[in-house]
Structure formats: structure tokens, C-alpha cells
Amino acid sequence: MKNAEAAELLQNIADMLEIKGESPFRVRAYREAARAIETLAEPIEAVAERDELEEIPGVGESIAAKLAEYLETGTLAYYEDLREQVRPGLAELLEVPGIGPKKAKLFYEQLGIDSIEKLEKAAREHKLRTLPRIGPKTEEGILNAIERLRGRSGRTPLGIALPAAREFLEIVRGLKDVRQADLAGSLRRGRDTIGDLDLLASSDDPARVVDQFVALPGAKSILAHGPTKGTIVTAEHLQIDLRVVKPEEYGAALQYFTGSKAHNIHLRALAEAAGYKVNEYGVFRTSDDRRVAGETEKGVYQTVGLEWIPPELREDQGEIEAAASGDLPDLVELADIRGDLHLHTDWSDGRDSLEQMVEAARARGYEYVVISDHSVSMGFVHGLTLERIQEQRGRIVELNERYPDIRILHGTEVNIRADGSLDYEDEVLAEFDVVTASVHSGMGMDRERMTRRILRAVRNPHVDILGHPTGRILGKREPYEVDLQAVIRAAAESGTALEINAQPDRLDLKDTDARLVAEAGAMVAINSDAHSVEQLGLLEYGIATARRGWIERKHVLNALPLEQLLRRLGRPTTPARYALAA
Ligand SMILES: [Zn+2]
Ligand SMILES: [Zn+2]
């Protein structure tokens, strides 16, 4: 059936006409015909065979003739001509999912972009965001779309994919005839990067739900439109797949489409051994093919003798064995977090003031918050000199008086120098409540030197936390060459916590490394590294990463109540010292 193909051809023609500046009526005629073909109940070839193309709503004589030519020969001379008339590069731009004629024209006219290569370069150099209504998200989306187009991985950071998917999820939940809807796939498992965004819904009339989904205003283009599945591309170039199943199959489908593949293979093998068959429609007894579960996910797991397994663990990394023996970890939750130990203000490179950051931490209900601006060698971001440390401490004393409902701790994110020494002297470090040490330069060191450098910082008695321990930036920078096992061992010995930095492009430590930390008996600190008030909310991505790393509340430094935290850090528990220091 060539319906989707034919509809796409007409949409492409409409795009070209629009770029050429042809009459909006002609453009609209092609688009309307395309939509009618998309929702056709039978193969368009059959309609053509009966010579009834003109009976399709919106398809007149001229469009019918073009369709007939295309269906017969597989090409269309009119379309090929158009492609030649339009600047060839612009036609190429339209192949990037989510780029329509308006954007293509804008990019060409404002930035001279007339090829996918130039588009990619402009996006990487952040030039697109200088244009009206183009933000960093769109830029990121365009890069992903280009990578997908080229068959590369094209994955989106969780921090961009999750908010977008939730927005659509809420809309889908509100559609007519939808009973339930959830996130699925790697999104539900909380992976650090996401391919396509998967949504799942249940309904007694799946086709009707898909029809509504692909017609949503947020759908900038439609990649697939079938009776149980629709795929759209958003303005941010995110590809969203919605599958709709019958209510009685929902649990089985949710289990199946959440994955991972490895987890599902293991689960099916286990089920088989127990005399069951598990697939996306339900759990069936092998002996008589009777359906015994499928409505809920819990039921699917129970039938094969397992506890329900949190999605973040479903990677076949021992979770099935743990579920069978009742030993699943009690994973940390966002609500367990008592405070954020790493944030920046406009005293260094943050956007917002000390007071605004404190207010934001209060609004989140935190018991404590640590202000940790950069240290002095970070001159280019106004790292704090000794005088400014004192000045800032004075402000913190005042704020502690003004806000008795939250304890504001004075911290620092101190640079680890190339030799592993720190940016401040020991006496200075001793005055802070919390010291996070991080590598911000000289990242290209060889493994031996880098390991020595970081070990020295981790073993420094003044250091409480090692910030973003591997330095990776997703899609941009590989982790440093470092013997992480040695670092983790040293952290366990010295009582230094290793950070799970929740910035979506860091998520550093990553999930599997976090698990090693807990296994070694060391602690993690899950921090936002917020540079603005909104970024305090990034913490949830750190939580997702921690959960994927089997982290429980007891492994998390900032899940401790204030007094316990200070005692563990070896700091006095009363705020009086600030007054003295100031
Ligand atoms: Zn840092
Ligand atoms: Zn930082």
C-alpha cells in the first residue's frame, strides 16, 4: 500500500510550491489532498485501478493525473521539475524531519544555508538560535534529526526528551476514547539519552485515538499513520511514537514496549520454563494457549513468579534474579532528597542571585542547601577570591537569619589543579561547610597522571565530594582517562562522596558507575549543579540515573537529615560559626 508514500509526495510538492512563493490556495490544495490520502481506508492502488482517484476528497483532475503517473511509474516528472527549479539545497533541507518550507526559507534567507551540511554546522555553532523563534531546543532537535537522517545514532538527552514527552502524554490522556496512557521505552527506563519518544495508550477504539494524535497541532509532520500506531515529528524535531492497544492488553504492552530488549528476552525465557508465553498481548499458558494475564504490568510479572520490577532496572543486569528472590533494591526517590549540595549564583557563573537560589531551594521544600560557587583560578567565571569568600559568607549569615526554615550552608566548588592540589589553602577550605572538588581543565591528561591527580583530591581530608567525576559531556566530550575503580576505592576509604551531577548533558557519574560506588560502600551525592533557579529541577534526571544504578536512599549523602549530614562531614551542627567567621 502506497498511501503514506503518495501523501508524502503531495506534501513535498506543497513544500516546494511554498518555497517558490506560489499561491497559498494551490499549496493548500496539495496539502488537503495529502491528508485525505493519509486517512484513506483502502490502498490507493486499488482506488487508482478502479479509476476513482478523483473521488478522493480534495483530489481534482490535475492531482489525480499526477498520482496516476506516480503510481504507475514510481516517479513524477512535475515533481522532478519542481525540485530543479527550487534551489537544490533547499529541497534537501526539507528532507530533515520537522523542517518545513518556512524554516528552510528562513535559514536560507537569513544565514545562507542551502545544504544539510551547512545546516548542521550552523546548529553546532549555535547560529540558528539567533533567529526568531528558534531556541536551543530546536537547534538540538535539528542536529538529532540530521543524525537520524544519516542513520547515525541521533539520541536526545533525557532532559529534553522527558519534558516534551510528558507534554504530549498529558495531551494524549485527554484525547477522546483514551483510557490510560504512559511513557514507554528508554524514556520510561530513564536512560541518559533517548532515541524516539515512545508513548503507549489503551482504548476500545485505537484507530480513532491515532487519528486524533497525528492531527494534533504539535505534530509538524507525520511519519506514520496506521490503525494502532502513529508517528509524528514535533517542532523541536523530536520523533514521537504512539501505540494504542486494547485495555485488556495494556499491561502486557506496557511491559513489552518499556523493554529493554535484553530484559524481555530473559523474561520470556523464564516464562517459557514455567509453562507460559509472554508477548505484547498478554501472558498465555503454553498447554492450552489460555490467556492468564496482561491487563496490568504487575500481573505479567506475578504470573511468572516475579515481583514488579521498576523500569529503571530493566536492563538484564541481575534485576530478574533479584525479583525472583525478593531482593530488589528499595530505590531512592526524589522525595528522599533533603537538599542540594551543588549550586552556583551570580557571584560566579550562575545567572541568579544568592537570595533567588535560596528562595528556589525553599520552594522545593529542602531542609538545607549548599551555595558552591567556583574557586579563584576560574577567573573567567569570577571564581571567588579570599575577600569575596568572606563577603559571601557574610551574606549567608544574613540569609540564615532571614530564612529560619532552611539551612544555608557555605560551600565551594574548588578546582583540582593538574598536580591534584586544590585552588585554596587548607585553612580556607576548613572554613567551608561543604567542599566539592572538580576537574575543569587539563582534561587530556594520560590515565596514570589523571588518576593520581584525582586520587590526591579525593584523599584530601577537606574534600567532601568529587564533582562530576569523569567529566563527560554527552555527545561532546568523552570521560577523562582515569582509573575509576581506584577512585571509587579511595572514596570508600576516605568517606568522600562521588557526585551524580544531574545536568542533562553530564549525568556524571553514569548509571553503571553509580552502582559500583554503592557496591564499594561509598556514597553518592545527587546534585543539580544549578546555574539558575529553574535548574534546581534538573535533579530528577540525577535521580533517574541513580535509580538505574541501583542506588538506595542509604547510599545518598544528601538524603541525610541536616544534623547527620554535618556530623558525617565532620562539621559543627550549629550555625554559630558563621557569625564568627564573618
Ligand atoms: Zn563543575
Ligand atoms: Zn558546578
Walk me through the structure.
With 582 residues, the protein is of the alpha/beta class. It folds into four domains: 3-149, DNA polymerase beta, N-terminal domain-like (DNA polymerase, domain 1, Orthogonal Bundle), CATH 1.10.150; 156-245, Beta Polymerase, domain 2, CATH 3.30.460.10; 255-324, DNA polymerase, thumb domain (Beta Polymerase, domain 3); 334-581, TIM Barrel (Alpha-Beta Barrel), CATH 3.20.20.140. Helices cover 44% and strands 14% of the residues. The strands form four sheets. A seven-stranded parallel sheet has the order 11-12-13-14-15-16-17. The protein has a five-stranded mixed sheet with strand order 2-4-7-6-5, with helices on both faces. Strands 8-9-10 form a three-stranded antiparallel sheet. A hairpin with a 2-residue loop joins strand 8 and strand 9. Helix 1 runs antiparallel to helix 2, helix 1 (3-20) runs parallel beside helix 7 and helix 20 packs parallel to helix 21 (484-494). The longest helix has 18 residues, at 3-20. It starts with a helix and ends with a helix. The mean pLDDT is 93. The structure holds zinc ion (2 copies). One zinc ion binds at residues 342, 344, 413, 529.
